[in-house]
Amino acid sequence: MSTHDTTQPLPVPVSGDQAAVVESAGGLISPAEILRIAWEGIARNKVRSLLTMLGVIIGVAAVIIMISISAGTEATIAEQIQGLGANLAFIQASFGRGRPGSGDSGPMLVYDDTAVVESVPGVVGTVVDQTTGKTVKADGTSLTDVPVMGTTPDFPSVRDVDIARGRFFNEVELERKAKVAILGASLAEELFGDGDPIGQQVTIDTTRLTVIGVADEKGIVGNTDFDSQLYAPITVVFDKFMPSQFARFIGDRVRIIYAQIDEDADMEQVITQIQLKLATSKGISVEELPVTIQTQQDIIDTQSATTEAFRNLLAWVAAVSLIVGGIGIMNIMLVSVTERTREIGIRQSVGATPNDIRWQFLTEALMLSLVGGVIGVIVGVGGSWLFGATGDMRTVIVPASILLAFGSAAAVGVFFGFYPANKAAQLDPIEALRHE
């Protein structure tokens, strides 16, 4: 007949590390004690713990880096679009939209449309752009496929281009088809080296143009390399470089008209008025108007949508890495529960409740993921800085991405650590003590 009181903890002979466990496990365990025990569990197998955290480290670092790259790309695009000029609307010929039954599905944006756009209230400036690639010769140097842009005198102010030397052409020179040219900064250097290009002549086909100005450096904005361009009056470009047999019937076609909108005007309302006036001038409805009109914000939004798709793709990759890291944590915690079954039995025998055991192992899993998260944040921030400092790619570290990545790591630790912790809590004390 047994004389043991089943309401009292079982007397168990212990020794070594288990003595410390018994000492710490008697009765209610404080949160600080649970953290200490969890940390000792991690520190006991440093290499195994580090390998377990590897998936979380990679996942957290990937989230921070990919968001910093995406934010840097968006900032660069926004700056480039804003660098095109202030408060611009881009009126472009739209291929495939022509007057029904006319047999003409090509663009119908012509130079004369500039006057129509200028007449709309709220439009404070217009510039046309018709560019063609030509071979430019000067001072014994010949350059092929140089972008020759036919434009109008307001180009520097509307497109935010400064003239470093000389001047831009004026209305009189535009009307008289003066054979003058303004060179981009790098084009001037390639053609004339360190010499002064002002007053020199360049030859395009058989036409000689006198250089009257050199634009300041602006670099590449969007798809346009401003520094490699040659600017000439649009009337000269139409007359000498892009003669059209249809010009006498439909006018000289242009690729794009830039309309600068007054800052105080309602952009959408002005654009609607531009569409109405252009459609009326062509005798067609707005729906048939063969042009598209975009604002700088439209272009930024389009580019942002592209980078967002790229960011979402990388987010899935990072999420997979975090899930793999979580599975690794769960596997190691299951191994840990098996290895420490006798320790669990000892703790239960001296009064630890299943909840104490559950919290101990759940805290250990959470600590694994949080330590991995901290290392991942360091790697992610350092990697983002390294990408920006050593490559052509711009990065912007977003603080919210650090919180997102770290929070995800914590969630992974709790989710994947619960099953091993619950399994440890449900162990039978007698069976656990018998475990070798």
Brief descriptors of the model:
436 residues, alpha+beta, 6-stranded mixed β-barrel, two-stranded antiparallel sheet, 15 helices, 54% helix, 17% strand, elongated, disordered N terminus
Determine the structural class based on helices, strands and strand pairing: alpha+beta
Mean pLDDT: 82
For the record, give the distance between the C-alpha atoms at the N and C termini, rounded to a whole number: 28 Å
Strand line-up in the sheet with most strands? 2-3-10-5-7-6
Total number of beta strands: 12
Characterize the biggest β-sheet. Answer: 6 strands, mixed, barrel
Q: Note poorly predicted spans.
A: 1-27, 97-107
Overview of the molecule:
The chain has helices at residues 17-25, 31-44, 46-82, 113-118, 155-158, 171-175, 185-192, 234-241, 247-250, 267-282, 296-339, 341-349, 354-390, 399-425, 429-434, and strands spanning 88-93, 123-138, 141-151, 163-166, 180-183, 201-204, 207-215, 220-221, 224-225, 230-233, 256-261, 291-295. The model is unreliable at 1-27 and 97-107 (pLDDT under 50). With 436 residues, it is of the alpha+beta class.
Concise account of the structure shown:
The protein has 436 residues and is α+β, with helices and mostly antiparallel strands.
Give the SSE layout.
Blueprint: H1 17-25, H2 31-44, H3 46-82, E1 88-93, H4 113-118, E2 123-138, E3 141-151, H5 155-158, E4 163-166, H6 171-175, E5 180-183, H7 185-192, E6 201-204, E7 207-215, E8 220-221, E9 224-225, E10 230-233, H8 234-241, H9 247-250, E11 256-261, H10 267-282, E12 291-295, H11 296-339, H12 341-349, H13 354-390, H14 399-425, H15 429-434
Parallel strand pairs: 3-10, 5-7
Antiparallel strand pairs: 1-11, 1-12, 2-3, 2-6, 2-11, 4-7, 5-10, 6-7, 8-9
